[in-house]
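Supplementary Note 3. Input sequence used for the single-chain structure prediction.
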Amino acid sequence: QAQPVESGGGLVQAGGSLRLSCAASARTFSRYAMGWFRQAPGKEREFVAAISWSGGSTYYADSVKGRFTISRDNAKNTVYLQMNSLKPEDTAVYYCAAGPTTAQVMSVSQVRYWGQGTQVTVSS
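The predicted structure, written as discrete structure tokens, is reproduced below.
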């Protein structure tokens, strides 16, 4: 199965933390950059974070820089998004994304594979 599968979403109070996971098949994960997007109700899907296939390069949206950390474990074919100091405006469905390059997993139109999404709700 090429489609990544997310887990770890839920309800948390403002200031709290959550860790999202995204598991992909070895064929999808191997040598692919990975990323996270989110989409709030009534808004367009937006880039959150990306990581190169080696894990050596990471990229973040300004809105999450310093609060979120993306990482990957290539032995487990899994990418993570650690979210700290959560705010109500972080509430959204979070999607895992995969593509051949980091540039492609930073652009909605160029992502190769999408996960099904996981809901994150931050209460005030």
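The radius of gyration is 13 Å. DSSP finds one helix and eleven strands in the chain.
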